[in-house]
Amino acid sequence: MRYLPLTDTDRADMLAKVGASNIDDLFVDVPEVARLDGPIRDLPMHASEMAVERHMKRLAAKNLAAENTPFFLGAGAYRHHVPASVDTVIQRGEFLTAYTPYQPEIAQGTLQMLFEFQTQVARLYGCTVANASLYDGSTACWEAVAMATRVTKRKRAVLSGALHPHYAQVVKTMAQFTGDEIADSAPAIQTEPDLEGLTARIDDQTACVVVQYPDILGRISDLSKVAEAAHAKGALLVVVNTEPVALGAVKSPGEMGADIVVGEGQAIGVGLQFGGPYLGLFAVRDPKHVRQMPGRLCGETTDAEGKRGFVLTLSTREQHIRREKATSNICTNSGLCALAFSVHMTLLGEQGLRELAAENHRLACHAADRLEKVPGVRLLNRAFFNEFTLMLDGKPAREIVRNLADRGILGGVSLGRLYPGVKALEHALLVAVTETTTEDDIETLATELEALVKEPAQ
Amino acid sequence: MNAPNKSGWKPAMEAAEEGGVRGPVTTTGNRALMLEEPLLFEIGHAETTGVDLPPIGEGTSPRLGGFERSDPIGLVGLTEPETVRHYTRLSRQNYGIDLGFFPLGSCTMKHNPRLNEKLARLPGFADIHPLAPQSSVQGALEVIDELATWLKTLTGMPAVAMSPKAGAHGELCGILAIRAAHTAAGNPREVVLVPESAHGTNPATAAFAGYKVDNIPATPEGRVDVEALKARLGPDVAAVMITNPNTCGLFETDFRTIADAVHEVGGYVYCDGANFNAIVGRVRPGDLGVDAMHINLHKTFSTPHGGGGPGSGPVVFSEALAPFAPLPYVEKDATGELHIVEEENTDEEHQTFGRMTVFHGQMGMFTRALTYMLSHGADGLKQVAEDAVLNANYILRSLEDILHAPFADSGPCMHEALFGDKDFGGGLSTLDLAKGLIDEGYHPMTVYFPLVVHGAMLVEPTETESKASIDQFITAFRSVTERALAGDESLKQAPYYAPRRRLDETAAARKPRLTWETPEG
């Protein structure tokens, strides 16, 4: 077998050294009831590299890859062009096959990268400190709520109705077990988010209010008003961002008064990958909150010769030291995705990110203008970055998305898929446009939509 | 200057000083292939970019609602050649499996096959959106379904939740399902029992799920104290969390007995599957009475550790817990088409506890793990466990004469060998020995874990090391151990040859500097 270096002679010599007559002697502690008489049945035997490749390629070919089709999906996962050198760097064995930097003297590559990554994230978010990553945006969102309850010693979180519904589900799932109280609602179909309604729900028992920016309908709103209202009641403002490229164009959440900023980093460097692995970003504005943060933190120090170096630090917050008193149970995070993000961000730089954001927004404006001209289609948003909501006449948007897919077009995410059973949302379609979208793609979508929206509902 | 020592070991610079031959101090601080690399923020510029975007097209007026970001973000860029060099230089300050032996106990640092990497990058897997219409991603759902079948068959368990993102997330998934099952039966119960030798994630997880954690002692032989555990069982106990093989590297011989006793009082058995590599293809945890177990795809099934993730932690469930599994999951309908079960499709039968993550889990890891399983097959995976266990026993028996091996008499070890720092001279510790191993060209074993052994050293060779590699490691380990036993003070300053000497972790924590601050002026 190509991954197993021991030869039969080695095995015999080694068994002799350990005083075993055969391999079964080393498994004597397995109770009788769990012993098997051979390889586990109902599974295939080993296969050549060629055979495995054939099998997997056959499965891959059954999927419609975004690169082969007009593509407009977003809702928390965005398709951007990733420069070739990103993948080259993350495939270097010294990064790919290393582990959590427990021995800093021989892990300075990972550690310095994490220090740079933390700085990039903190600046992008307008915060002072970011951690070394969490699993994804949705788990980061829950960690932010949990942290807010620790900081404020209150147990109530108010979720904006325009928070990604799956993020809200993750928070509600966890809260059933921690006893935290979560107040949420479905988004109302309106041009501007209902900030008054949201701030009215904040009371003096509220630990935090959670707002997505841009929100699930693509809208951009004034977070400073929410921050003010939250702070007036002693609550924290948690801002969730699912499209980091947007922060190359719009004000950072930190700038607008957010206390904890979390999000999904996938859009930069990581790729779509059917939903994972992704990259949870987590940052705080006030450095005094650092000791309540979840996850790994990399910090600067010096070595015995006075040279600058980096280590994992403040680990007394973490499970391997604090056990049941830890700030989170997280251990492995998203190290390699953090590297991909950081390399892509380094290639972009300030100027590249701003240009990328500008091009996304320009194309999205163009698409919104074009699609709005389709009879029976109405643009909901006044403001948006690279994703907006269309209201479609006739059939529910979910059906239209399926019809588009049958014609080889991935035309967006229907709110019916995200909010099943919510009648008011079933004619809404989320459309995301990035630098990878061409004007031809937009034209194709407009033409096909025109035909479908006219078709009467069945 | 180091005190004389019995072993006579000296770092080369000192030996060179005595011999009068000494290399020059370089102006760059570099030493040939060992290159220093400044921070990105010291070499990059706001106006530099390594990405040529197409010229920005004709603009319409922006519709950002008046929230344009006008202040500098504070990011810097590098051109492509500078970027590649920056990260290549950084990479060379890292130790990885590709470079050498990485016996980090409990982490299963095995070779990461490159076929996995190649196939995970096929556009049909890498370039598909999690919310794409299901008819357009049937191949992806097949990967999930096929991997699920492998996991269920290998563990002898009827159900699996695929969405947890890493081992600790899997533990949480298992404990939440247990809590949901108890709650459905009328009482969530209060306590989760965890052995002293458990991973820190176990108690942290139980606490996160709202349980009180009670510790169960180990026997002098390094296994769960069954009598103590039985004595603690009662109607308040929701579950026990046991790692098997355990963190002392031993198989829990009485696991079935423990499981039966826990079931007797209406509790559930959570098995931490971090050490599944020792038994994969040879033992099915389902035969031992397990109710839930996470499987670290990044350990047993060879997906890369990536400098700290991403991992992937699917959880297999018994019949009793299966209905409580989290959303979303993949199911085959009557026509044979696969579909994703989400909030809207749940019915009476599915008493799901909810959702753990926004999408379907670590697809990129699923393709890699499935590629690995298909490569090895049922026969190859059995051989994986056998070679991993053989290598560990070989190390145990090759070092037990000079190094304290607290459980050497408890029978064969499984996939890792555990040692302690008893008899080290001159106030030397496990940490010193570990740093000495770095100078010898090795990544140290796991140190100071499990907590039940003083100065613990947990050595996990995995099955992907050759005998020659292991023999060389044993020779190096023996020599550093001899220095530690002899009280060789030079070990206190090790490592000498790494990119950095010992780093001041206390200073890092006392005054944390967690981001780069651009110097004034």
Topology:
The complex is a heterodimer of chains A (458) and B (521).
Chain A: H1 8-18, H2 49-60, H3 84-90, H4 93-96, H5 108-125, E1 129-130, H6 137-152, E2 156-159, H7 165-178, E3 181-183, H8 195-200, E4 206-212, H9 223-232, E5 236-241, E6 260-264, E7 280-284, E8 298-302, E9 308-312, H10 319-322, H11 335-372, E10 377-379, E11 387-392, H12 397-406, E12 413-414, H13 415-418, E13 428-432, H14 439-454
Parallel strand pairs in A: 2-3, 2-4, 4-5, 5-6
Antiparallel strand pairs in A: 1-7, 6-7, 8-9, 10-11, 11-13, 12-13
Helix pairs in contact in A: 3-11, 5-11, 6-7, 11-14
Chain B: H1 12-19, H2 40-43, H3 80-91, H4 114-120, H5 123-126, H6 138-155, E1 159-161, H7 167-184, E2 191-195, H8 201-208, E3 212-216, H9 226-232, E4 237-243, H10 255-264, E5 268-272, E6 292-294, E7 315-317, E8 329-332, E9 338-341, H11 363-399, E10 417-419, H12 430-439, E11 446-447, E12 457-459, H13 467-485, H14 505-510
Parallel strand pairs in B: 2-3, 2-4, 4-5, 5-6
Antiparallel strand pairs in B: 1-7, 6-7, 8-9, 10-12, 11-12
| Total number of helices of chain A | 14
Order of helices and strands of chain B: HHHHHHEHEHEHEHEEEEEHEHEEHH
Structural class of the helices, strands and pairings of chain B?
alpha/beta
Shape of chain A: globular
Terminal-residue CA separation of chain A: 57 Å
Largest interface: A-B, 217 and 206 residues
How many strands appear in the DSSP assignment of chain B?
12
Tell me the major beta sheet of chain A: 7 strands, mixed
Mean pLDDT of chain B comes to: 93
Radius of gyration of chain B: 26 Å
Proportion of residues in helical segments of chain B: 25-40%
* Residue fraction in strands of chain A: 5-15%
The shape of chain B is globular
Binned strand content of chain B: 5-15%
Oligomer: heterodimer
The radius of gyration over CA of chain A amounts to: 25 Å
Number of strands of chain A: 13
* Secondary-structure content class of chain A: alpha/beta
In whole angstroms, the N-to-C terminal distance of chain B is 41 Å
- Provide the low-confidence segments of chain A as ranges: none
Helix residue percentage of chain A: 25-40%
